[in-house]
Amino acid sequence: MIIDAHSHVHDPVHDHIALLDEAGIDRSVLFGTRPHPERATDLASLKDELTVLHETVSGQTDGYEEAWRELHNACADKRFIGFGKVRLDRAAEDVEREVIGRGFQGIGELTPPPGQAHQIEPVLQAAADHGGLPVVVHGFAPTTAEDLATLAGLAPRYPTVPLVISQLGGLNWMTAIELAAQTPNLYLDLSTANVIFAVRLAIAEVPDRTLFGSDAPYGDPVLARITVERVTRPGAVRDRVLGDTLAELLGL
Q1: Pairing state between β 163-165 and 135-137
Q2: Which of 51, 113, 161, 246 is deepest in the core (most CB within 10 A)?
Q3: What is the secondary structure of the chain as a DSSP string?
Q4: What residue stretches are annotated with the Amidohydrolase-related domain (predicted)?
Q5: pLDDT band at 245 (very low <50, low <70, confident <90, very high)
Q6: Which of 172, 106, 178 shows the shortest CA–CA distance to 139?
Q7: What are the backbone angles phi and psi of residue 4, rounded to the nearest 5°?
């Protein structure tokens, strides 16, 4: 089974399904979102959507209710595996209501303020309390190298929780790989990696904890799959990266 470990709700949803079909992807983890860059038709409209993205990752806007609604509706299609975003100051309540209550299978994508990665600890506790739900944390800016180290320090306290750093840690990909190699329940999703060499090294260092992802609509599922296939040989390692590892984590 090939599973995209990282994607966001598209508008309209059927465009996303068409991308999965083109890439030969069986299922996709789906996160809620406020910005919709796929709606943009020119540079001006893209800037508008990216302004919403900036406000979202910097904590200047809420918009949870609308994002939850979009995600819930999109996940009516069984190609999608819903992961619910929760408020860091209401982790236990939101995990119970907006993740477990909606039948989602993980938590994310979380974006704590820069230098504040410790704020996700209540989410890790709630994930552990519900059987070890996977938790995905934004890895690119504004997440810093220090934040990645904080996440790696928190992970061992909750060994049943797979903690996933997305976007291969962004510009801090070498730090992310080093930390994952040292931390048994720290995983890396390979979405929108900066250089193909980073993908090759991540898979070489932690082949059982690297996850294929596209970050669609910011990335392209076809290109993301080709990237993994470009740096691996056919066989067990490629299969694990493209979906087997995530299928095990989710009990699929």
Answers
A1: parallel
A2: 246
A3: --EEEEEE--SSHHHHHHHHHHHT-SEEEEE--S--GGG--SHHHHHHHHHHHHHHHTT----HHHHHHHHHHHTTSTTEEEEE---GGGHHHHIIIIIITTT--EEEEE-PPTT-GGGGHHHHHHHHHTT---EEE--STTS-HHHHHHHHHHGGGSTTS-EEEGGGGGGGHHHHHHHHHH-TTEEEE-TT-S-HHHHHHHHHH-TTSEE----BTTS-HHHHHHHHHHSS-TTHHHHIIIIIHHHHHHT-
A4: 3-252
A5: very high
A6: 172
A7: -80, 115
Q: Which residues of 24-39 are buried (b: 16+ CB within 10 A; e: fewer)?
A: ebebbbbbbbbbbbbe
Q: Where are the domains of the chain?
A: 3-250
CATH class of 3-250: alpha beta
pLDDT per residue over 57-74, tens digit each? 655 455 667 777 888 889
How far is the C-alpha of 132 from the C-alpha of 116, rounded, in Å? 23
Tokens of 223: 């290109």
Whether the pTM exceeds 0.85: the reply is: yes
